[in-house]
């Protein structure tokens, strides 16, 4: 196992596989890599693939400073991982909240970001756009208040959510493509969520909900591919379209019928789009 150190001393786990131009996989919130099950092996034959766990996620340690769980903190951690891995520049392939992390990573160090693939994500304010409404932003402060007053109860309720029931609800409510997504591909996500510290998760979600990189979009010069799922209820497709329009020269791809877990639902189509984009980036750089 390989660990880097964040700016505040937080222990950051990462793995590296393959050889060639570097790409770094950047997860969504509460994720530790389940979404890359099919894309990662498709990348390793021609790329050095780096995947890291956010602070407090997976095998990374809890944040040394509990308040440093914002998007900017994750972006700084990403740069620390790349430095530790001896990588001066990489294409960031990001899913969900990872899109915000990728944009902030570009803001912090232009030269370290050779390109961006932004999948099922938005530039910010995600708690106000969830399901196309601000319902989550209204409910989140109440959840944080409950966590503050009853941490033991929240921890007990949080960790006891059965994986099977969570999967059934997600499929029944149309949050994922029930026909294309295999339950065993999504189960690791719910298992990981159950292991997270709920207070940290809520603080991280609130920080991501307050973050907004829209001002940055017209300034982005890194080659960018934006991929959206037509039926994504977490980050509706119109926000991805808006983001792509504001990034100069960005390529936009909509996956018909796909939800927020598009990389697991339509792996071959997504792999083709990503590999084609990477070939262009490497050719232009060479």
Describe this entry's structure for a reader.
The protein is an alpha/beta fold. It has one domain: Alpha/Beta hydrolase fold, catalytic domain (Rossmann fold, 3-Layer(aba) Sandwich). 43% of the residues lie in helices and 16% in strands. It has an eight-stranded mixed beta sheet with strand order 1-2-4-3-5-6-7-8, sandwiched between helices. α4 crosses α5 and α4 runs antiparallel to α8. About 4% of the residues have low confidence.
Summarize this structure as a short list of keywords or feature phrases.
single chain, 286 residues, alpha/beta, Rossmann fold, 8 strands
Short summary of the structure?
The chain has 286 residues and is α/β, with parallel strands linked by helices.
Count of helical regions: 11
Mean pLDDT equals 88
CATH class: Alpha Beta
Provide the low-confidence segments as ranges.
162-173
- CATH architectural label: 3-Layer(aba) Sandwich
User: Main β-sheet: number of strands, strand sense, barrel status?
Assistant: 8 strands, mixed
- How far apart the termini lie comes to 32 Å
Topology (elements, then pairings):
Elements: E1 2-5, E2 11-17, E3 22-26, H1 39-43, E4 48-52, H2 71-84, E5 90-95, H3 98-108, E6 113-119, H4 135-149, H5 151-159, H6 163-172, H7 183-195, H8 198-210, E7 224-229, H9 237-246, E8 251-255, H10 262-265, H11 267-285
Parallel strand pairs: 3-4, 3-5, 5-6, 6-7, 7-8
Antiparallel strand pairs: 1-2, 2-4
Helix pairs in contact: 2-3, 4-5, 4-8, 6-7
């Amino acid at each position: 196992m390989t660990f880097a150190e964040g700016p505040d001393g937080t222990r950051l786990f990462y793995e590296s596989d393959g050889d060639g131009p570097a790409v770094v996989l950047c997860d969504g919130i509460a994720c530790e890599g389940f979404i890359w099950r099919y894309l990662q092996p498709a990348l390793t034959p021609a790329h050095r693939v780096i995947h890291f766990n956010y602070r407090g996620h997976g095998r990374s340690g809890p944040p040394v400073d509990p308040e440093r769980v914002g998007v900017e903190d994750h972006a700084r951690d990403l740069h620390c991982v790349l430095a530790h891995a001896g990588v001066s520049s990489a294409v960031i392939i990001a899913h969900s909240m990872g899109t915000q992390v990728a944009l902030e990573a570009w803001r912090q160090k232009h030269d370290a970001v050779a390109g961006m693939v932004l999948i099922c994500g938005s530039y910010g304010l995600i708690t106000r756009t969830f399901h196309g409404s601000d319902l989550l932003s209204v409910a989140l402060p109440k959840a944080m208040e409950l966590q503050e007053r009853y941490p033991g109860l929240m921890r007990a309720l949080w960790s006891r959510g059965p994986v099977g029931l969570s999967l059934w609800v997600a499929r029944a409510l149309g949050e994922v493509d029930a026909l294309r997504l295999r339950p065993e591909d999504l189960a690791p996500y719910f298992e990981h969520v159950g292991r997270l510290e709920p207070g940290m998760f809520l603080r991280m979600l609130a920080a991501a909900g307050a973050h907004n990189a829209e001002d940055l979009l017209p300034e982005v010069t890194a080659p960018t591919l934006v991929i959206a799922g037509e039926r994504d209820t977490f980050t509706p497709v119109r926000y991805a379209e808006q983001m792509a329009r504001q990034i100069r020269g960005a390529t936009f791809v909509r996956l018909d019928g796909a939800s927020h877990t598009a990389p697991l639902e339509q792996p071959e189509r997504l792999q083709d789009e990503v590999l084609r984009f990477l070939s262009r980036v490497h050719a232009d750089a060479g």
